[in-house]
Amino acid sequence: MEKNESRVKVNKYQLGELFSKIVEVKRRIESGALNYEETIEALQYVIENKGYIMAKTVKGVAELKYLPNIVDLNARPREFGGYMIGYHNGGGIFNFNNSKLVLFSENVPKNGFKLRKLKEMACNGNMLDFLLNHQELIPSACKEVYTCFLGTVYQDLQNDESFIRAMYYCNGRYHDSLLALDNDFDKSLPLLMPEVK
After folding, report:
1. pTM score, whole prediction
2. Would strands 51-58 and 61-68 be described as parallel, antiparallel, or unpaired?
3. Is the pLDDT of residue 107 over 60?
4. How far apart are CA 77 and CA 85, in angstroms?
5. Fewer beta carbons within 10 angstroms: which end of the chain, N or C?
């Protein structure tokens, strides 16, 4: 079962929260706690989804640093297809500068302890969103398969179904869709995993 979704709706509460953050940034710029030019540059990185931003305070003034090719796997994943998030594994900060991703397709069970362990280790929806925005970092082996992201599971409570997101290559670009969790994960539907050293 496959379902596509392209837009995420922002509700009134989220819009209010976003506005309050913008007001706080304005206040900090006016007080001198943030540098205007660095703040605008950092916000542009956020808008373009180019990387993870970290702030460091030096003598009471925050410095914003752009760290390319960093993914915050702990952040709340985006909702997809109107389904609730049933599971999200977190996983800390993933740095493409010193780690790499591999496809895994050997003996993936449909349930049980081994599946739970694979969910804990597998790449999640945050990694998928990052890769879709940085397609040059996607392993070339992903072009031939539907690459599955088992680290975030979506649930349709009305129909008692669970889904994961998958990435596929079509018309010169990668796209994503939902796949039923009860699929057989094999060589045509491998999991994307961080390489274990």
Report:
1. 0.68
2. antiparallel
3. yes
4. 8
5. C
